[in-house]
Amino acid sequence: MTLTAVHLGMDDIDSPRGGCTTHFASLLVEDLTQLGARWLDYPNLIRLNPNIPYRTRGNGAVTLRFEIKDSAVDKVLPRSNLLLKEYLKEDYPNTNPGMVITTGDVPVDLLGFAKLALWRTVPVALARRLVARLALPHIVVGNGRGLIGALSAIGNQLRQDHTYEYIAYRSIELTSRARGVDVDSVFRMNQKFGNRLFSNVDVSTRKILIEPHGPDPVIYGIRGETPLDVIKAADSIQSSQDKERWMVFRTNQGTGEHLRHRVRLSDIRPYMAAVVEGEVTTKSKIIEGGHVIFRITDGSAIAECAVYEPTGDFREIATMLTEGDKVSLDVGVRPASRMHGLTLNVEGLEILQLTDKPILANPICPHCLKRMKSAGKEKGFKCIRCGFKDPQAKKIEIPVERQLKVGRYLPPPRAQRHLTRPKDRMNRMNNGIPNNLVGKWYEP
Ligand SMILES: [Zn+2]
């Protein structure tokens, strides 16, 4: 009996009752195990470019990688399709599911495609062409957008840095009720596991980040460094709703994988995820709504940058930037609209160099010790209190003491993207595909 390696990618599987791609994947794992699948990897949960507007739900794409008897390979997609139809029950206008299958080694073209989908917009037409050219068996519903995530999830094999997420699911019949995740139990877990876990709580607001808010079957998801860490950590969590099933995913969350491209400001395009470097050209200012705006240039162009109000202390850092500071920014590009030009939404900030240029101020009257006013162009300064005039007086330099420090700054965990590399993971890399899986990594 010979076995064939199969990679089954899927994306955008929602249902009117509030399904989600990872939940569907957990059902499919059970089904394919019965068909004889031998698992080569944990299900991979792949987050794509977070700036793409229609991916607002953060609904990650998933790939299942397994070996199966040659004779069963042709049964995989029809069986998945059957389960998909049952899962979706009826047409749902906002969902565009896609599933794609490849066998053997992952085609090289998909590796490049997956890289692109992390930081650019990828047209559906490109995904369709790729599927046709490589003759990949696939299922597509709606406008075909699901193919993009399905292909990307196959192409991103997480060979370099990766993390894990344990996801607990409730019954799909009970998705309208409160999950009731106990906040204290989450903070106790966080204390106990320390830097083995990440991005599960927001300490400054004492908010938990493991519980989603939509009507989906996820009760909670715990992010961590190894499968055993997240499985053990889940034992500590108490919730009013019962777990119906759970599964561990290997993922690119927390890796910063979307920010691998340094882009010149003149090459910036809408929806890009990019790293830009430049010099601040205007002192930052706070606009209506509490957002902070400043401009930078790298010589090729000038760009408007924005730090949004909900990002708390991070916003305070941005308000202290001034003309001449050198910065490197992690950005998501928002296209121009009627209200504003093209804007770089700052999601990470590194201060490379702080300017120590002194501030120029008017000289002080030697009699009143108050600042004088200009007496007109090249006429020196005069005191409006006592009438003292000094035609030779020049502006004086006041040295500036900066409150900022050179270094890297991030928004608080509650405002970070799934893909953001958090402080807890700053010097951490988990490399390579796991050799073998832990004994129990899902439970129906
Ligand atoms: Zn005076």
Overview of the molecule:
The chain is of the alpha+beta class. It folds into 2 domains: 3-255 and 425-443, 2-Layer Sandwich (Alpha-Beta Plaits); 265-357 and 400-416, Beta Barrel (OB fold (Dihydrolipoamide Acetyltransferase, E2P)). 20% of the residues lie in helices and 26% in strands. Strands 1, 2, 3, 4, 5, 6, 7, 10, 11 and 24 form a 10-stranded mixed beta sheet that branches. A 5-stranded mixed barrel has the order 12-14-15-17-16. It has a 3-stranded antiparallel beta sheet with strand order 19-20-21, with no helix packed on it. A hairpin with a 6-residue loop joins strand 20 (381-382) and strand 21. Bound molecules: zinc ion. Zinc ion (ZN) binds at residues 365, 367-368, 383, 385-386, 388. Zinc ion binds next to loops.
Features:
2 domains; single chain; binds zinc ion; OB fold (Dihydrolipoamide Acetyltransferase, E2P); Alpha-Beta Plaits; elongated; alpha+beta; five-stranded mixed beta barrel; 8 helices
Please write out the topology.
Layout: E1 3-11, H1 21-34, E2 38-39, E3 44-46, E4 61-69, H2 73-88, E5 98-103, H3 108-119, H4 124-133, E6 138-140, H5 146-155, E7 163-169, H6 183-193, E8 201-202, E9 207-208, E10 218-224, H7 227-234, E11 245-251, E12 273-280, E13 285-286, E14 292-297, E15 302-307, H8 313-319, E16 326-334, E17 343-353, E18 359-361, E19 373-374, E20 381-382, E21 389-390, E22 396-398, E23 407-409, E24 442-443
Parallel strand pairs: 3-11, 15-17
Antiparallel strand pairs: 1-4, 1-5, 2-4, 3-4, 5-6, 7-10, 7-11, 8-9, 11-24, 12-14, 12-16, 13-14, 14-15, 16-17, 17-23, 18-22, 19-20, 20-21
Helix pairs in contact: 1-2, 3-5
Bound molecules: zinc ion (ZN).
Zinc ion binds next to loops.
